[in-house]
Amino acid sequence: xxxxxxxxxxxxxxxxxxxxxxxxxxxxxxxxxxxxxxxxxxxxxxxxxxxxxxxxxxxxxxxxxxxxxxxxxxxxxxxxxxxxxxxxxxxxxxxxxxxxxxxxxxxxxxxxxxxxxxxxxxxxxxxxxxxxxxxxxxxxxxxxxxxxxxxxxxxxxxxxxxxxxxxxxxxxxxxxxxxxxxxxxxxxxxxxxxxxxxxxxxxxxxxxxxxxxxxxxxxxxxxxxxxxxxxxxxxxxxxxxxxxxxxxxxxxxxxxxxxxxxxxxxxxxxxxxxxxxxxxxxx
Length: 283
What we know:
The protein has helices spanning 20-29, 48-51, 59-73, 91-102, 134-151, 190-202, 212-215, 225-233, 255-264; strands at 4-8, 34-37, 40-41, 76-84, 110-114, 157-158, 206-210, 239-242, 269-274, 277-282. It is an alpha/beta fold. The chain has a single domain (4-282), classed as Alpha-Beta Barrel (TIM Barrel). The strands form two sheets. Strands 1, 2, 3, 4, 5, 6, 7 and 8 form an eight-stranded parallel beta sheet that branches. The protein has a two-stranded antiparallel sheet with strand order 9-10. The longest helix is centred in the middle third of the chain and has 18 residues, at 134-151. 43% of the residues are buried.
């Protein structure tokens, strides 16, 4: 069983309206033993004006709220953060230095590394997809992830490695429709993905199993099954599991079916990070 949800958000994240109290209450109602709040910190987010979102929060205030909710809710709550990694020249160095400064505090349990933006744009916007096939656009994204993990090997887990497929557009198609999702083929960009997987295995970085792909109707969690199998075949064992919930109803989303799939692929345990160290639980 999966009894810990280690990736979720609260209203400290720019794109979430749910309070910590609501998220924790949902987790308790669903029988979880623990959760970790991992609110978004995306330094130098490039599309503040387009979304009116900064993806920044006050860590002191966030963690003080966790202390309060922890006393009230009756389940274990860890303190985490999801940092948005960047590979653009100049930006990458500034952002990495900024995160290293933020992470000097000693009360952090868990650091999720994610690539949300590249080429100075959030690929949620249709402009990213112009002039590229889905394979090319995803290839650029995976290349950025490889550069990001190499430059930020201090992270604890690599988040939703193929998350970008959620927003895939067809060149010349309707920019408001994600018609390119079905063009994401097994094995494409495999050489780059293998490099990513080899790096995180060699450097003790976990691979996140993120069930939000199922919530978005993709038919699979992140990463896609072939990547998960490849990770296991390469000797990868260290995994973390999270719903990426932004609403109470999505806490622990599809955990039961995800657990069965992980066991079928040969995984026997998952990690929950405490004070930046993994603690293992049986699936």
